[in-house]
Every structure is written in structure tokens, then in C-alpha cells.
Amino acid sequence: MAASIAICARRPLPARPAGDAPACTTMPDHGAHDRILGAIIGLVVGDAVGTSLERHPRPAAPVLSDMIGGGPFGLPPGGWTDDTSMALGLLDSIALHGRLHDGDIVGRWLAWADTGAYSHTHTCFAIGTQTRRALTYWRGYLQRRRRPAEKLPTRAPELRHAQASGNGGIMRLAPVLCLAGSEDEAIALGLRQCRLTHGDRHALAAARLLSRHLFRESRGHARTYNSPRPAPREQGALDTLLAACWAVDATSHFRDAVLAAANLGEQAGTLAAVTGQIAGARYGLSGIPGEWRARICWSDRIHRLAVRAVMATCRPGACPSFVVPSPVPGPRRIIAAPR
């Protein structure tokens, strides 16, 4: 466990070429940008909370009340799984390009699968069967081409397999909010990244709904989802989304929503990660407990990467002032936006 904690604290995000990173690594203080950051960091926090009860039968009563680590992967408190690793690959690509670049995104996911990039444990673990199948297909596809295309064809049978109705397309979705200027654009982007691994119609339906929910929540339009308490069962993407909506409906704070989701057990990590996206978009970054934000592995790096992704797509003059993100209380430095 001590070794895992050391890895968590010291492992850097994969390096980017010099000169490619946006210069501004600060974050907006209020409004939609704060809620977008809330959705992204909420995903990571939810993943780290839920991993404790991953693959655990649903408890008769809530047993989890904090971010404690452990679970089937023996993670330290604040450790996260494949949900966050894939989200970080997507987020890093958005921060670099300022748009979706399918070939670059897939390349980053392959680096995670092959070498443990975007994993605080140095290894790829908890990868889903369908995600592995899709990445195996993309590895062969990209090896036959000199340069990865910005838009990749996604009609291959390997991407639309019966198992492609799982959670992979929604567990990592929040970063596309950085690019979405409208609800229709959010849906198109959410579907596009989903198709890279999960092209089944049920997975796409869930990605469409989650994209819509996240965009509306990030614009301050909270709603009641009227989702019933989920029954114990093997969860596909639509089941996971409905359970996450129930957890948000049944609570009035980010912390309570994520714990309600995690205490459902079974696929608790992904369920809490999806819940964290919705609750984070509703309550904003400031609504996520500071001690949880500080505890997640790579906390500072992830916060700054999220900010870079938001800033990479921010129109000049649209974000006049920002605050350096800090997951723990302390002085904050206001910085003017680049012109």
C-alpha cells in the first residue's frame, strides 16, 4: 500500500511536446466553466469513491461514507480506475488540439493499454472486454496508416459488438463539455467519442442522454430526472445512467449523490463516476468536497489539465478572469485571461 501511495503522488502525466500546451493554466471563477470543471473533476472523484465497492454485491444498507480506496484493485485512498484513465486521455487530447481528434485520442488510449500511460499505478488495469476489443482493432487499423486521421470510421463490427452496450462511452464523457457551444454540439461530440469503442445503439442512446444532461446542468438548468431506485442487476449503459440520475435526484449535495451511487455496489466505480459527472455539472467545482479533490491521485495535475482543456477552447475575451485552482483552502491568485 505504501508503494501505491508513492506512485499516486509522483507519477506524472505523459509529457507533451514543448510549445504545444496552452500557456494559461488557470480556471474560471464562476458560471458554466466552473460547472464544466465540476463535471470533469466529479468524474475522477466519483471513480475514486466508488472503487471501494466495485464488484461488491449491493449492501443491505449504506456502508461507505468516505473516499477510502481498497476494493478489488487494492487502491490507495484517492486511487481511480479505467474510467478516469480514459477520460484523461480524452482530456489531454482536447487540451492539445482544441477539438476532437479521433486518431490522437485512440493513440492515447492505446498508450494507456500498452504502457500504463494515464494510470497512477503505471499499469493498465480494469479495462473492459469491449474496450480491449476496440483498442485491438484500432491498433491494427492505425498500424496500416502513416498518420492517424482526425476523424476515424467507426462502422467496424469490432466497435458494434453485442458487448458494446456497456459503460465505456459514458464513464469518460465529461471532457467533451469543453468543446460544446450548444446542446446539439454536446450530443454530437458525446456520440463521436462513444463510437470509438462502444457503437451499440444502447450505449449510443445513453451517451446521447448523458451529453444532453451534462450540457443543460453545466448551463445552470438543473432538472428532476424522476428515475426510480435501481434494482440489483448487471448494468448496461442505460441502466447505469438511470441509476446515476436517481442518485442525483435523491440528494441535494455532490457528496451525498456520489455516496448514494457508490453504495449501490456492483459496478460502483463507474456508477459513481457517471453520478459525479452529473452532480459536478450541477454543483460546480466548488460543490465538490475539497478534501476529496485534494485526495485524488495526481490531484494538482488533473485540475491543471482540466483547466488547460477548458482554456484551449475558450474564445478570446470570453473568459475575462480566472482563479488558480486549489483543492484545499488557501490563497487564490487572480489572473487575467489571455487576449
From TrEMBL:
Mg(2+) binds at T81, D82, D83. Pfam families: ADP_ribosyl_GH. InterPro entries: ADP-ribosylglycohydrolase, Ribosyl_crysJ1, Ribosyl_crysJ1_sf. Gene3D superfamilies: ADP-ribosylation/Crystallin J1 (1.10.4080.10). Its cofactor is Mg(2+). Keywords: Hydrolase, Magnesium, Metal-binding. Binds 2 magnesium ions per subunit. It comes from the Bacteria. GO terms for molecular function: hydrolase activity; metal ion binding. Belongs to the ADP-ribosylglycohydrolase family. This is ADP-ribosylglycohydrolase family protein. It comes from Rhodovastum atsumiense.
